[in-house]
Design goal:
Blueprint: E1 2-8, E2 12-16, E3 22-24, E4 30-35, E5 43-48, E6 63-65, E7 68-69, E8 74-88, E9 94-106, E10 110-111, E11 115-122, E12 125-127, E13 132-134, E14 143-152, H1 158-164, E15 168-180
Antiparallel strand pairs: 1-4, 1-15, 2-3, 2-15, 3-6, 4-5, 5-8, 6-7, 8-9, 9-10, 9-11, 12-13, 14-15
């Protein structure tokens, strides 16, 4: 098995319910995955250790909503639980199952129950009842855009559920770069 690095990039997005899309700069995140040998169709399995996977939080530094940064103190942290799937070496198409807990907090004043996200991220088109998007397969530089639509169940917090209109859909757009790991463990450029 080979190792493959994942680096999250700027130009990501997130939408939930009827709210407009958040613009999200996810630079600085990533992890190392294990890539299997290709099968007879050229498909390779890819699996990331969720405990070693880092996705930057949505804060006033990383996220803009309606052109404005999120209010200071408001943060949504992302705690991955699963990221695994397959890559088609010939076409650059990818499908990865992503499961995570999203934690919404306002300073030390308020912390909501986790929102559970479980979706298939794809480099192809995705279509939900409310949201749609099209990803981009891996290019020659190892960059791709993965997109996914997930149904978000109520959190159990009446304020948050009413504010977000849960249950409803969420849309994720993840721009990222994949590449080999150097022999000394550093990412290759």
């Amino acid at each position: 098995m080979a190792e493959l690095t994942l680096q999250t990039l700027a130009g990501c997005g997130l939408a939930i319910g009827a709210y407009p899309r958040f613009r999200y700069d996810a630079r600085g995140g990533g992890g190392v995955g294990r890539l299997s040998e290709g099968d007879s169709t050229g498909s390779q399995e890819l699996c990331f250790d969720p405990d070693a996977l880092c996705i930057p939080p949505l804060t006033w530094r990383t996220t803009r909503f309606l052109g404005l940064p999120l209010p200071p103190g408001l943060a949504i942290t992302i705690h991955p639980e699963r990221l695994e799937g397959s890559i088609d070496a010939a076409t650059g198409a990818m499908t990865l199952r992503f499961a995570a807990r999203f934690r919404f907090a306002i300073g030390g004043i308020y912390r909501a129950p986790d929102l559970i996200v479980d979706t298939m991220l794809s480099t192809g088109p995705v279509q939900g009842r409310r949201h749609q998007a099209t990803g981009q397969p891996l290019d020659g530089d190892g960059q791709a855009q993965l997109v996914g639509v997930a149904t978000i169940a109520p959190s159990g917090d009446p304020f948050l559920d009413r504010f977000l209109g849960l249950p409803d859909e969420a849309l994720a757009l993840l721009r990222c770069r994949f590449g080999p790991l150097a022999q000394d463990g550093r990412d290759l450029p």
